[in-house]
């Protein structure tokens, strides 16, 4: 288990090494092609040091990689959403760059991964996933999580959460598959009125073709997800970049080993099999809201 930035460096390095090998170059030849010492290429490929977006672009140029989607993905993994000072106005920035001094690095890393992933699979046992929250629900969750935060801090965090939801819109929206324990729907976060609005929003969002909801009713009994929530990020075309994220009170842990990915992938498949279908889940959520 490693914190997010280290995970991204390791995965980026592994993919850059793969691209170098596909180009038929040794690490020494790659270094000479871009005018570096061989040790720099080695450090990048092992994930032991960070790398600027401009350096990733130079390597990909040397390897003859022209695939725009792949280049954008690898740029995101090296932190292209937060370019180094002096890289110029053309450097790629994510919307979260404006919050870089006010949000924890692990949260910024999570947002960056979320913005570039093609699919998100999540189990939630207590709260509605952030991408599916209404503003009022997000405020209530934020207040509860932080204890007694200042109003301006709450509003800023809510703005960030709502901005994250942009990944659900656009030409290639993020595919979301969420398994929700019934407790998520029963906790009256923010009170009855706020919760009613949140349940309506879940039903509305669930009508989007790229959002699938599966409810695990209390009647399903114990299940493999009882140990806690998790998120699996899947990336286009490169399965080795997939990441599992476990949230804790003070930090997030990122799992990258293939055996971890297989275990959590299998767990998610099992959870979906025990949960209600998407259609029945939307009926279930609407029924709770109607008092059924």
| Low-pLDDT sequence parts | 81-92
Q: Helical region count?
A: 12
Number of strands: 6
Helix and strand string, N-terminal first? HHHHHHEHHEHHEEEEHH
Instruction: Name the structural class.
Output: alpha/beta
Task: Characterize the overall form.
Answer: elongated
Mean of pLDDT = 86
Q: What's the gyration radius in Å?
A: 21 Å
Q: Terminal Cα separation, in Å?
A: 43 Å
Query: How can the largest sheet be summarized?
Result: 6 strands, mixed
Strand order within the widest beta sheet: 3-2-1-4-5-6
Q: Estimate the helix proportion, in percent.
A: 40-55%
Q: DSSP strand (E) fraction?
A: 5-15%
Domain HTH cro/C1-type: 16-70
Organism: Streptomyces aureoversilis
Protein name: Helix-turn-helix domain-containing protein
Walk me through the structure.
By secondary structure, this protein is an alpha/beta fold. Helices cover 49% and strands 11% of the residues. It contains twelve helices and six strands. The chain has helices at 4-22, 27-34, 38-46, 53-62, 68-77, 105-116, 135-146, 151-164, 182-186, 192-205, 258-274, 278-289, and strands at residues 119-124, 175-181, 211-216, 230-234, 243-247, 252-255. Strands 3-2-1-4-5-6 form a six-stranded mixed sheet, sandwiched between helices. β4 (230-234) and β5 form a beta hairpin. The model is unreliable at 81-92 (pLDDT under 50).
